[in-house]
């Protein structure tokens, strides 16, 4: 038995623990309240009660990749494919700006239609119209040259989850034509380019062991990203992982707390996947140390097509249009939605 309070305090003071202590905190429900309490207190020291909001624009569900877990993988022939035009993206931004969003996140499959030229044109138009806004991209692996061009065009941040820091595990989640080494290289290229960078992983993905999760945490300590995105794996019925067990809500929550205590300044979203597997997921995530939410700002008629996993929440308080609802539940939980760019605090 370990002394939980003492262990969590040590994590808070040193931003580190040995593997054995970390494993204990990740695995045991009796750590919940102490972990959440300290993570929340650290986030309040740095970010106060502010919750940053990002408008999520799902740019395209075309994808050339075939990730085994993902509902918009190339081989899923049952999903209708769409891509947004520049005009459609700008309309999302206009609505989002009006609602109070000052960060727009363009996420999508790896769709070759979105060449550097096409993307740079969209990015520079957004930045010209909304110079007070940050643009975040989450468009997968690209060349270092491409990242440089996107950054030059005005993109500020880039989210690229590493998915798993264990090469053998990576290869169980991805087909042979994808490479663990390239994914990691992309993260370092993005950092070097000057982006605020987000890494992250799924909790409870098929074949994941607790040791894999420790490797994920060690990788985050090494990379020192500005943002970390984690959420439970949720199976999608038209993928090879159909019927696989979903990730666990409370393991995810404990990991959010551990990440807040390891990387105190990190921007940490309470993710859509978390609110998809648990009705109070969004708020539980905030109470466990998360400080960002990313409501869906995509055109409503396309939302159901961006189906990364079954049951993906996109309406109600997940919808940018219902920001008032979100503000209400956030303030009930003791936080307040903040309308500014919400950059990382140094
Ligand atoms: N193509 C981009 C964006 C991917 S979608 C990229 O490669 O980065 C964003 C994230 O959704 C992925 O990084 C993955 O971690 C998560 N995701 C995909 N399928 C999922 C599933 N079945 N359950 C939970 N999260 C999933």
How are the SSEs ordered, and which strands pair?
Blueprint: H1 4-14, H2 19-27, H3 32-47, E1 50-53, E2 55-60, H4 86-99, E3 103-108, H5 116-129, E4 134-138, H6 144-152, E5 157-159, H7 167-173, H8 180-193, E6 196-203, H9 210-223, E7 227-232, H10 249-262, H11 272-277, H12 281-287, E8 292-293, H13 323-332, E9 336-338
Helix pairs in contact: 1-3, 2-10, 3-10, 4-5, 5-6, 6-8
This protein binds S-adenosyl-L-homocysteine.
The site of S-adenosyl-L-homocysteine has 19 residues, from loops.
What is the compact description of this entry?
This protein is α/β, with parallel strands linked by helices and 346 residues long. The chain has helices at 4-14, 19-27, 32-47, 86-99, 116-129, 144-152, 167-173, 180-193, 210-223, 249-262, 272-277, 281-287, 323-332, and strands spanning 50-53, 55-60, 103-108, 134-138, 157-159, 196-203, 227-232, 292-293, 336-338. A 6-stranded parallel beta sheet has the order 2-3-4-5-6-7. Strands 8-1-9 form a 3-stranded parallel beta sheet.
